[in-house]
Specification:
single chain, mainly alpha, two-stranded antiparallel ribbon, three-stranded mixed beta sheet, about 60% helix, 9 helices, Glutaredoxin, globular
Length: about 250
């Protein structure tokens, strides 16, 4: 009888241990499933790869700026597949100097490397970007302004607005911006952004890729921007990309 009781107690103890082990395993499985669901949700949130950001710090009437803008940058931008994985920005200011007005707060004058026409060209570009907003519209405008440099910026603007068939309201808005405090504000913003570069810019064009500037990035962008954008893009490699690239971070 005592042996039977011992056997029953042993069996119940073993059963209890099995139940506890099964419960722990079930809890672990549930936690694992929850973790997988969280990871999966996180992946779904960030499934869209980020575009490669290309920023050109430049100045009007600069032949080297124009060479990059009309060459490597335009070649990349004109390919619709590459344009789809690239985000461009152009910041016209370059090597200009901002001179605060001693008698008026938040008022500035500008001294430009290539004289007053360069200052006017920078202003024209900044206002076109502000009014046209979308790079699909403002980039062709800036490209047009930079054709056959040096040109009188006012005459070039009129020609480009006709070539691009801008609506009258946009032409008026750009013109008003150029001659108003809005234009001054935009150039001041470009001055602040240019002077805040790290490392500080030493020349133009100054090319920043994904918020980073190095001599290697600059050289790669000027040599073959398409290959560089393809190399840095984290999504599926587009068919327009070359099979190899010489740039490595």
């Amino acid at each position: 009888m005592r042996g039977l009781l011992s056997a029953v107690v042993f069996a119940l103890t073993a059963l209890d241990a099995t139940v506890q082990a099964a419960a722990r395993m079930s809890t672990a499985r549930a936690r694992g499933a929850h973790l997988l669901s969280v990871l999966s949700a996180a992946q779904e949130i960030d499934v869209e790869p980020k575009k490669v950001k290309v920023e050109l710090y430049m100045e009007s009437m600069c032949p080297f700026c124009s060479t990059f803008l009309q060459g490597a940058l335009t070649k990349a931008w004109e390919d619709p597949i590459i344009r789809d994985i690239m985000e461009i920005n152009v910041i016209p200011y370059g090597n200009a100097h901002e001179i605060p007005n001693p008698t008026a707060a938040d008022d500035y004058g500008y001294q430009c490397q290539h004289g007053p026409n360069e200052c006017r060209g920078n202003l024209q570009m900044a206002c076109a970007k502000h009014v046209l907003k979308d790079s699909e519209k403002w980039f062709p405008y800036i490209r047009c302004l930079e054709i056959d440099n040096p040109r009188d910026p006012a005459s070039a603007a009129s020609e480009c607005e006709n070539i691009l068939m801008l609506p009258d309201e946009e032409i008026v808005a750009i013109s008003h911006c150029v001659t108003s405090d809005l234009g001054k504000k935009l150039i001041h913003e470009n001055a602040v952004k240019t002077m805040s570069l790290k490392p500080p810019h030493k020349y133009v064009p100054w090319i920043v890729v994904n918020d980073k500037h190095t001599d290697e990035l600059q050289a790669a962008a000027q040599s073959d921007l398409i290959a560089l954008v393809c190399e840095l893009y984290t999504g599926k490699r587009p068919t327009a990309c070359p099979t190899n690239s010489s740039y490595r971070e």
